[in-house]
Write a structure and sequence with these properties.
10 strands; two-stranded antiparallel ribbon; alpha/beta; Glycosyltransferase 2-like domain-containing protein; 276 residues; Nucleotide-diphossugar_trans; 2 domains
Length: 276
């Protein structure tokens, strides 16, 4: 049985973290083979990437750890999460895995079931977002796995490195998976609902996909960082930010201030993209 490091990033309500850790205690796995690392991001906010990287570095020092699970603190896991991941790995040797994640408040409603990346216009999509959870769901190929629950082999981290901290918050999981695919690693999303997500509780809007002030800025800015870093098509990429993402996300903000933060993110992202 392989040893696994589970990285839980604490931010916001302690109650969420405690409930997440309680669910991990119920995992159907040899707990002597689990090393749970909780990173406290509330005192000094390193961002998602920085906080997760801090935990991954601790885990990587232990050479007996062969697998890593990155987990949001506002999630509750099914007891069969790890056994399901290892069962899938035995079937097709996947390197990065995720699973169907449903809403904690609405467990029969899908939040994540694989991610799609449009490289032409540089936008991402959860194709199954808000769709009902059915027993015969068949998932298409996934371009990325959400950082809310990402399981990976040690070899992935050793070859492509850690999460890119330039993003701070959001898009770092897309970037990580994009680099992994370029390095010939295989990504797979299980067709099983194994995680329940409270969704944005750390941003103060539990159960909602609407953009809070915190989310809006980084959602807007970070697509430009991704475009520039990976040399995606400029004209269609810029078009995608102003004529696809901007209208869509402005319709999902929670307040006027959130809209201002999104526009600030677009401004700063554009400035970054065209800087030398």
């Amino acid at each position: 049985m392989s040893k696994v490091a589970i990285i839980v990033l604490h931010f916001g309500d302690k109650k969420n973290t405690i409930e997440c850790l309680d669910s991990l205690k119920k995992l159907n796995y040899d707990h002597k083979k689990i090393k749970t690392i909780v990173v406290d991001n509330s005192k000094k906010n390193l961002g998602f990437a920085g906080g997760i990287n801090k935990g991954l570095k601790i885990g990587l020092k232990d050479k007996s750890i062969n697998f890593f699970l990155v987990l949001n603190n506002d999630t509750i896991v099914d007891q069969n999460l790890l056994t399901s991941f290892f069962s899938q790995i035995k079937k097709d040797s996947a390197d990065i895995l995720g699973c169907i994640i449903s809403y904690f408040l609405e467990p029969k409603k899908i939040w994540f079931a694989g991610g799609y990346l449009n490289k032409t216009f540089c936008f991402t999509k959860h194709p199954y977002l808000n769709k009902p959870l059915t027993s015969n769901i068949q998932l298409p190929k996934s371009d990325f796995i959400t950082g809310a629950c990402m399981f990976m082999r040690r070899e992935v981290l050793e070859k492509i490195g850690l999460f890119d901290e330039n993003y701070f918050l959001y898009w770092e999981d897309v970037d990580f998976c994009y680099r992994a695919v370029k390095a010939k690693f295989k990504i797979l999303c299980l067709d099983q609902p194994l995680v329940y997500h409270k969704v944005s509780s750390s941003a103060g809007t539990e159960g909602s996909n609407k953009l809070s002030n915190l989310r809006a800025y980084y959602y807007a800015r970070n697509a430009f960082i991704f475009m520039k870093k990976h040399n995606l098509p400029m004209l269609t990429g810029i078009f995608g930010q102003f004529f696809i993402r901007l209208p869509y996300y402005l319709s999902t903000v929670v307040s006027l201030e959130s809209a201002k933060q999104y526009l600030k993110g677009v401004k700063d992202g554009t400035k970054y993209y065209f800087s030398s």
